[in-house]
Amino acid sequence: GEDVEQSLFLSVREGDSSVINCTYTDSSSTYLYWYKQEPGAGLQLLTYIFSNMDMKQDQRLTVLLNKKDKHLSLRIADTQTGDSAIYFCAEKSGGSYIPTFGRGTSLIVHP
Amino acid sequence: NAGVTQTPKFQVLKTGQSMTLQCAQDMNHNSMYWYRQDPGMGLRLIYYSASEGTTDKGEVPNGYNVSRLNKREFSLRLESAAPSQTSVYFCASTSAGWDTQYFGPGTRLTVL
After folding, report:
1. CA gyration radius for chain B?
2. Exposed, middle or buried, B19 (CB in 10 Å: 0-12/13-18/19+)?
3. Nearest residue of A to residue B4 by CA position?
4. How, if at all, do strands B87-94 and B31-38 pair?
5. Given pLDDT bands bounded at 50, 70 and 90, which one contains residue A9?
6. Which residues in chain A are closer than 8 Å to B58, comparing Cβ atoms?
7. Rounded CA separation A6/A32 (Å)
8. Are the C-beta atoms of residues A6 and A20 closer than 8 Å to each other?
């Protein structure tokens, strides 16, 4: 089946930039998402990108898509302690009801 | 808008007991989903309902049943709980357009 891979942990210092990486296998992916899960809560959509886009910027968040390499990244500028959470990458093809999620990257921000 | 709501928030069961997890959404979404989340395993799809009146199995359906009661409500039933079903359960629904999923706050279930 289709797969989405992420590294499990990332540790950064407050004020630095964080880059969370994701690779996927489905060449028909149409929608690519980043979700954030804070402790004890459900997943919240952070941002999304269509497969025909290369980049999307939204305040401190920048999403880069390399469709050739099937690589998606999320950059968080000026990372704050409130950004500590689990970040999930997900993809979905246009004809499917079912997104495929990665296992999540735990971002730890230390002072 | 309350979004996606789930009840209960916490539950402890003994092996063999049954229970139903409730989920409701007030966003007029067609599709609804049940996931379980276990440490290191990410999210695994149990069942989904593409539209009112239909339900389909996901990746890990064994030991569960679902009912799409109406467009708003999608329940998950454990007929005979097992310790392997100790997990956090999330309900989600999907909007049209961007096809983004909206998640409930989760139910934390422990089976002893």
Report:
1. 13
2. middle
3. A42
4. antiparallel
5. very high
6. 98
7. 14
8. yes
Span B31-89, pLDDT tens digits: 999 999 998 788 999 999 998 999 999 999 999 999 998 999 999 999 999 999 999 99
Take residue B2 and report the two structure tokens written for it.
């309350």
Q: Is A14 in contact with A81 (CB distance < 8 Å)? A: yes
Going by C-alpha positions, the residue among B100, B105, B97, B99 that lies closest to residue B21 is B105
Residue B2: pLDDT band (50, 70, 90) is: confident
Judged against a pLDDT cut of 70, whether residue A1 lies above it is answered with: no
- Which of A31, A41, A44 is facing B98, going by the closest CB pair? A31
Nearest to A30 by CA among B24, B99, B59: B99
Given this model, what pLDDT does residue B98 score?
A: 57
Residue corresponding to tokens 């709980």:
B81
Instruction: Please indicate if any CB of chain A lies within 8 Å of the CB of B48.
Output: yes
Residue type for position A44: Q
- Whether the Cβ atoms of residue A31 and residue A48 lie closer than 8 Å to each other: yes
